[in-house]
């Protein structure tokens, strides 16, 4: 055992490796065979674990498919809620997106292929993104000086969800900085229009 490494930390690292192996195997199978055609047993075999192990880590196939996406949404909600007083919601969203788009992660690449191959998962992703952005509507409403239930904040929140979804769905050859700049200019202009000021 390495210095400073406890039995508990070794156990947690083992769990993380198994979870990652299951997720990677599932993403590959969902992309190659399709979400509906892939079973939990298929995922278990590809990850070299038992079907029971898969269900200990994930309640359903959909939970596996959205494992990394849901984690990203949690970090987005936290970024919006914990932003500095002088930082706008659009600025916080920009920084979060820049961090996400800079990741050159194998799971992210596999996730892109999985969603491209499964329209039903893309539809669920759009719905989950909208839900997450509604969670962050407080930040947008605060910037606009309105209630989160007002038309302006709801409109801005819907636009933000659409922009983030579009960026997530961008082809691999898209210039991330150019796409991000255009998306944020669009959102900033929309927020300014809603607030009745020039962008």
UniProtKB/TrEMBL annotation:
Residues 39-58 bind DNA. PANTHER family: HTH-TYPE TRANSCRIPTIONAL REGULATOR RUTR (PTHR30055), MYCOFACTOCIN BIOSYNTHESIS TRANSCRIPTIONAL REGULATOR MFTR-RELATED (PTHR30055:SF238). Residues 16-76 form the HTH tetR-type domain. The lineage of its organism: Bacteria, Bacillati, Actinomycetota, Actinomycetes, Kitasatosporales. Gene3D superfamilies: Homeodomain-like, Tetracycline Repressor, domain 2. It comes from Streptomyces tsukubensis. InterPro entries: DNA-bd_HTH_TetR-type_CS, Homeodomain-like_sf, HTH-type_TetR-like_transc_reg, HTH_TetR, MftR_C. One of its GO terms (molecular function) is transcription cis-regulatory region binding. Keywords: DNA-binding, Transcription, Transcription regulation. PROSITE patterns: HTH_TETR_1 (PS01081), HTH_TETR_2 (PS50977). This is Cell wall protein. It holds the Pfam family TetR_N.
